[in-house]
């Protein structure tokens, strides 16, 4: 979760931190993710587990430990139990300087003690040892009573007093690293996954968040400076408390969603469970949405299925102006398209439609051909490559002139590629201060695709099919030559990424023209043929869906224009007319039996 700015400016927070902690302290916990065994106890503790005898619960509750009525007597207690101990010593020292008595568990207590912070162990408070291999440590009335008691309710405070239970003013907890464990590339057994499900932590977080009017709950180390500043100032800002409580519940909700997703996968269930929770984490606030009057933000999908799964959301931006709402949409479309091709390929996108696609062994030639397909649309578009951008390619991107006049230097919003050479990146940065340069990883196959409609979400499997996954069945009298079939496969792969109704005309692994987004297929065909011009003769034509009519319609117009082969899904009640029409004009027709609608 992103940290939110709750209190003072960063400089104030830094100053506060430096004033609370000695520069010479030997705290190992200043380094991120320092861990300790959950059952490790300091030898300096006055509490000796070796001589401790487990008593019956009834006896424990009937003989409360009256030495720990700390908050009731006016002193303040903070409960700290952390898996991720980032900046723990800073927090502990700061709370101690502010007069807090710190109560802690196992490894957290040991880490605090090693940094010179005085600690009361949880078991000293509960008069009950950690048990069941650490599964039960804080699930006790002496802990949860002290968190949940409402200070303005007399009977709550009387109940605590009668049992010798002190209140907690601050609860700082984060959870077992379940997400990191189950998403690790090394894998994890089912049993280990279960043991990494935190129980006590979420219970304390939820309890403190529920009672946030009296208890400050913190789950993110980025909020430690704001917490200390708030306590130091003796403030009573309920909005601050509510923000912390919101963040706490959100933290637990995201955690539970990961557990739920992982367990569903262990059951062998399909991709569409009866209930689905998708955890989003704010990556950035955007200047605006599709239009300037719309506010917008960009979130990363933190589902386990998206871990190391590639895509534009996790791309590294090396240079340029901040990404906009439309930039993300266009970059995603370009990247998804270019990653489909095996040969070195360049894709140019405008308004999420590929307006130029070319594959060549020479990537510079591919780039120039992709721009040439529609140079007017390419200007101000997004350029994507599926190979490294080296110095030579970067220079061509920087200096290439528009094919329309041979003078205007091509302008782009974004360049996206899997990697860049050092010199290539340096050259591209010199093209424009605003040019966004993205380095992305290829999307994994098999992802779930989500799309919002009013009041709900549509979920479907991603359209991952490639020409190698299907058969191009010849249904005409004339069979396509090998080069024609290759062109048909290339066009079919391109048309998959064009908005319906979609038509693509291609030859020699190069898009010549495309028609997109028209309410009728005939108009899309005419747009594509106009862009292709005379090069349409002998080219391949691909349609994202079947042709409902052939005679005096799209199929016959395509045949008359001189196309060599048509690839379409088939499935129309008038398929026979399409076959007859192609036979009349000597055009090859192949059915793919796969539709590629894109709305």
Question: Can you walk through the features of this model?
Answer:
By secondary structure, this protein is of the alpha/beta class. It has 21 helices and 21 strands. It has a 6-stranded mixed beta sheet, with helices on both faces. The protein has a 6-stranded mixed beta sheet with strand order 16-21-20-19-17-18, with helices on both faces. Strand 17 and strand 18 (511-515) form a beta hairpin. Helix 1 (10-20) crosses helix 11 (224-232) and helix 6 (141-148) runs parallel beside helix 10 (200-210). The radius of gyration is 32 Å and the shape is elongated.
Short description:
With 599 residues, the protein is α/β, with parallel strands linked by helices. It is built from 21 helices and 21 strands.
């Amino acid at each position: 979760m992103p940290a939110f700015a709750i209190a003072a400016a960063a400089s104030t927070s830094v100053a506060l931190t430096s004033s609370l902690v000695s520069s010479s302290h030997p705290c190992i916990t200043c380094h991120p993710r320092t861990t300790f065994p959950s059952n490790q106890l300091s030898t300096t503790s006055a509490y000796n587990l070796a001589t401790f005898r487990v008593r019956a619960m009834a006896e424990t509750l009937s003989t409360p430990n009256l030495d720990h009525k700390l908050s009731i007597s006016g002193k303040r207690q903070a409960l700290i139990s952390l898996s991720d101990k980032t900046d723990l010593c800073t927090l502990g020292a700061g709370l101690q300087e502010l007069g807090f008595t710190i109560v802690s568990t196992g490894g957290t207590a040991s880490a605090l003690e090693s940094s010179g912070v005085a600690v009361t162990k949880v078991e000293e408070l509960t008069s009950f040892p950690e048990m069941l291999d650490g599964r039960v440590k804080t699930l006790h009335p002496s802990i949860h009573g002290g968190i949940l008691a409402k200070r303005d309710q007399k009977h709550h405070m009387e109940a605590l007093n009668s049992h010798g239970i002190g209140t907690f003013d601050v609860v700082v907890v984060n959870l077992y690293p379940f997400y990191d464990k189950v998403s690790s590339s090394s894998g994890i057994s089912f049993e280990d996954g279960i043991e990494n499900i935190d129980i006590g932590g979420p219970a304390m977080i939820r309890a403190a968040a529920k009672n946030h009017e009296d208890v400050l709950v913190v789950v993110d180390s980025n909020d430690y400076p704001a917490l200390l500043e708030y306590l130091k100032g003796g403030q009573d800002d309920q909005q601050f408390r509510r923000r912390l409580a919101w963040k706490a519940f959100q933290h637990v909700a995201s955690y539970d969603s990961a557990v739920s997703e992982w367990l569903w996968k262990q059951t062998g269930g399909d991709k569409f469970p009866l209930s689905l929770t998708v955890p989003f984490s704010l990556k950035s606030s955007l200047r605006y949405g599709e239009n300037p009057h719309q506010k917008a933000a960009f979130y990363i999908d933190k589902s386990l299925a998206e871990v190391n799964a590639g895509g534009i959301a996790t791309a590294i931006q090396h240079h340029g102006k901040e990404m906009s709402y439309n930039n993300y949409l266009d970059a995603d479309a370009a990247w998804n398209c270019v990653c489909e091709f095996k040969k070195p390929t360049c894709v140019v996108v405008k308004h999420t439609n590929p307006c130029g696609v070319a594959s060549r062994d020479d990537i510079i030639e591919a780039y120039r051909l992709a721009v040439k397909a529609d140079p007017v649309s390419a200007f101000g578009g997004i350029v994507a490559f599926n190979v490294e951008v080296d110095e030579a390619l970067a220079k061509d991107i920087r200096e290439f002139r528009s094919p329309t006049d041979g003078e205007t230097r091509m302008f782009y919003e974004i360049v996206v590629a899997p990697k860049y050479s050092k010199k290539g990146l340096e050259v591209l940065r010199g093209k424009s201060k605003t040019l966004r340069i993205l380095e992305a990883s290829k999307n994994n196959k098999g992802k779930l695709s989500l799309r919002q409609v009013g009041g709900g979400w549509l979920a479907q499997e991603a359209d991952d099919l490639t020409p190698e996954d299907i058969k191009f069945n010849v249904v005409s009298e004339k069979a396509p030559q090998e080069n024609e079939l290759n062109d048909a496969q290339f066009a079919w792969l391109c048309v998959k990424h064009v908005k319906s109704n979609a038509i693509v005309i291609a030859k020699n692994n190069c898009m010549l023209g495309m028609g997109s987004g028209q309410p009728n297929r005939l108009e899309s065909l005419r747009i594509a043929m106009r862009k292709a011009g005379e090069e349409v003769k002998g080219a391949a034509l691909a349609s994202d869906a079947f042709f409902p009519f052939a005679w005096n319609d799209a199929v016959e117009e395509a045949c008359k224009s001189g196309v060599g082969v048509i690839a379409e899904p088939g499935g129309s009640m008038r398929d026979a007319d399409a076959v007859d029409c192609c036979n009349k004009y000597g055009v090859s027709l192949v059915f793919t039996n796969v539709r590629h609608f894109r709305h």
